[in-house]
Amino acid sequence: MFDRNSAQSSLDILYEDRVTLNDGRSNPETVLLQLTSETLVIRRDKLKNDRNSVDFSLEQQSNSLDNRLQKSTNDEEMISDERLIKLHRQPNETLGFSIKGGIDTGMCLESIKIFFILENISYSGLPILISRITKHQLVNMIKVGDAILNINGIDLSLMSHDEALHCLRTSGNEVLLNVKYMKLMAPFLSHQISTNNDMKHHQFSCISSKQYNQGQPNNDEQELLHQLLHCEHSNDVDKTKIENYNHEDDNPVDLISKLNISDSNTNFNTSLIRKSKKQSRRKRMKNYLPVHIPPTNSLTSSQTRSTSSSCSSTVISEFPLFYASITQYICGTDKLRSNSFQLSTLDGSQLGIIICDTILKQQTWIKQINIVIKNLIRLTVDELNQTFLPSDQIHYETWLYERFTIRNNLPEWKTKFFALKGNDVYLFDRPPLTSYDFICCNKIYCIYETLFQIVKTDYLLDDRPYCFTLENNDEYKHYFCLETKQELIEFETNWQRSTYMAVYNVKMKSFGCTYMGKICRLIIDIHQGFSLINNETNLLLWNYKFSQLKSSTDNARTKLYFDFQSDNEKLIKIEIECQHLKTLIYVINSFLTAKLIAVDNCG
């Protein structure tokens, strides 16, 4: 989980300025915007938020733990009745869901302890909870937040996480589960996003302030519960600390004091249960989600210094820049915002509209934020490349926008994530966080079989100026846009570099064709140029270098016409017919591009 205190104290501020924030829910307000090497921080002035602070304090008092527990005893929505679920699976197949919890995860929350006592459920640790469903067939049978009470009649209440996992794996092909829905637990699990990479889970969790009105645990209990739910995949230091807490006295008051929880506001000190400092930046960044720190009157002087650079800034919102995207356009349109921009984080959260005084400030902010985002992407790419072969490395990644035509022929721009890896082009809806994400990508194109063209001003479809197209043999032309001219130049440079590397990696391509009524194969070789070989006799009919090609045309169907210049400077016209004409033309274009780059480098 993202450690707010450690991040605030360890990350230097790279750039800061006063801007206007319009979140669409209240009147625009002046805030202090700060840029660090990993996050974008919003600090609201104390004087303008005193009333909000009082409102929040009253709301927090009205939602006290005792009042919630008393109400929950008659609330049928908090925990539903027990249900029997019968599941079938094939041999060597998983059940289709993931679990968390177990006796070894501890039970450190007073509210949850009392809640299980009221419901006559015996647990000395967190129950075995369904945390993720991977088979869509199970959606109507089980849900995230279901506690598994027993499996085929075997009680799980005294099992550790590993023991419960083993019980599930060895339960046979027909499994009978006795489950009970835990609404108190569900919000902590339903907001987690996990990706599997060599059996390592990176959890994302986001808790909105709206949960204070829904009978959920307070902010300090949320913090601790997140740590407990996460502990089974944390480092060994965290596991040891949690296990040590399990052997302490079960008295919640004593346990709170042993965990250094403030008596005034039960403000949990997250430094007791934090991730190892030896974790890499990428692993820590994967747990970033927007964090809102509400104002409080019980901060100590050290906590005040760690969460505020000045006495006037008390309300802090942090937005991670790991795979974030930034735009100066109104969402989905080709209309520019006036001196403003908007940031979207990896999980889809949006910063709101940041309004600057001048266009110069706007461009400065966009440039500085993009630098940080690209640095974080580069660090992730470097780590992912360690798992790929040298010929299959990631060369380039970036956000871009694709134009679609929706109902009534109205255009709409959607955010896409673009990657050049090995010999291929990848298009994602969300950035790839693991090597497995590249395998699962459903839009993969061979780069030397794809045509890249920058759209000239006269052919632009709307007011977005920095556009290009990608076209291959699938009969669909992708129309993309980047934010600035510099980004377009950078994209073109990386495209040409990746094309050069892909062509010299594959070296040659062969296409079946007919020439003068004979079945032949046209070979395009990066070193030998164009060669035509008779399939029946396997004899070379002709060969020309790339430098001898003067022009080429086609009839947009199957025929391709070459104009070569012979050694005696005589122009030779050649006609061939190929069923894969479009792919052939794109390959020739890529080989010519690679050859020109090679000549320029030699020159």
From TrEMBL:
Alphabetized Pfam families for the sequence: PDZ, Syntrophin_4th
Compartment(s) of residence: Cytoplasm, Cytoskeleton
Organism: Didymodactylos carnosus
Full protein name: PDZ domain-containing protein
Keywords: Cytoplasm, Cytoskeleton
SUPFAM superfamilies on file: PDZ domain-like, PH domain-like
One term of GO molecular function: structural molecule activity
PANTHER family referenced in this protein's UniProt entry, alphabetically: FI16515P1 (PTHR10554:SF1), SYNTROPHIN (PTHR10554)
InterPro entries assigned to the protein according to its UniProt record, in alphabetical order: PDZ, PDZ_sf, PH-like_dom_sf, Syntrophin, Syntrophin_4th
Family: Belongs to the syntrophin family.
